[in-house]
Amino acid sequence: MNKVILMGRLTSDPQLKETTMKVASFTLAVERINKDKADFINCKAFRNTAEQLAKWVKKGQRVLIEGKWHTDSYDTDNGRKYVNECIVDRFEFVEKKDEFVDAPADTDFFD
After folding, report:
1. Which end of the chain is less packed: N or C, by CB atoms within 10 Å?
2. Domain membership flag for residue 110
């Protein structure tokens, strides 16, 4: 089973791009247990989830995301490179809506 659940803060606003489908990319800063360090997790969302993330979530906002871990690789002149990221299936707000955005309660934030 490949399931990832992360809670953290966005390090910047999601970057929405459209190729054959909409894709939102962002980095999530996730605190470690000792709270003086963080891991920075690259994340991607697609289609409706990407649109909703780009519309409602901003830099510094804390969110809970659910998705799957994805590892890809490609060849360069310096050898093989690996890319790890979380593919977001859905997300939820962790903080009060009015602290960052005024998202409607009935919004569907996943495909």
Report:
1. N
2. no
Cα torsion 75, 76, 78, 81: sign: negative
Q: 50: closest CA among 95, 18, 81?
A: 18
CB 91 within 8 A of CB 110: yes
**Residue 73 falls within a domain, yes or no?**
yes
The DSSP H or E segment spanning 82 is strand 79-93
Run of H or E including 53: helix 47-56
pTM of the entire predicted model: 0.80
Pairing of strands 38-46, 15-18: unpaired
- What is the count of structural domains for the chain? 1
Q: Is residue 63 packed enough to be buried (19+ CB in 10 Å), middle (13-18) or exposed (0-12)?
A: buried
Question: Which residue has tokens 């970057």?
Answer: 15
- The residue segments making up the domain with residue 26 are 4-99
CATH number at residue 12: 2.40.50.140
